[in-house]
Amino acid sequence: MPVTPLHLGPAMVLKAGTGKTMSLTVFAFSQVAMDVEVLVRIAIDADRLHGFTNTILGASVVLFPAVLLGRPVCRAFLSWWNRNLSAKQSELLSVDPDISWLAAWSGGIFGVYSHWFLDAMMHADALAVWPMVHGNPFIDWLSIGEINGLCLVSLAVGLFALCVMAGIRRMRNQIGVSNKR
């Protein structure tokens, strides 16, 4: 399934551990960018769905526009998100719309290469290390069920960790506010 939300799982764990040094939105943007070719191939009813962008070379090519376009698009999206929250929602769901270049690049790098690797293990038509090797040496390292299971578990662990960290941050802010009075 192209543009799978399951790929967010490993990113949630990484985001929980890296904080502002990785952009989850640029990660997601790069994931979608990786599947543009697959979506086009589906639309034209191609025999092979996983082409150039599912090679290590193709993922590297996708990285640059994904980061350079993703950073301003994601910043605009996060600003829009914050503007459309109610006051009550804003307490829990507002986010810092600033995305540093470090965060954009780390989100993009992890996005394209994790996508490349997950797809390489799942799709026999992905020529993962072309042009060095014809074929896919990663196919069936894990079953599709195992990959999806790991992605779901990492999604749950990452979400839990992010929620715990947000709660700790809120408590620190409240303590800091009450200490300043």
N to C succession of SSEs: HHHHHH
Helix content: 55-70%
Shape verdict:
elongated
Mean pLDDT: 92
Written description of the protein model:
The protein has six helices and no strands. By secondary structure, the protein is mainly alpha-helical. Helix 1 runs parallel beside helix 6, helix 2 (24-43) packs across helix 3 and helix 2 packs across helix 5 (101-122). The longest helix has 37 residues, at 144-180. The chain is elongated and about 60 Å long. The protein starts with 7 loop residues before the first helix and ends with a helix. The mean pLDDT is 92.
Question: What key attributes describe this structure?
Answer:
single chain, 181 residues, mainly alpha, 0% strand
Question: In summary, what is this structure?
Answer:
The chain is an all-alpha fold and 181 residues long. It has helices spanning 8-18, 24-43, 56-83, 87-93, 101-122, 144-180. The longest helix has 37 residues, at 144-180.
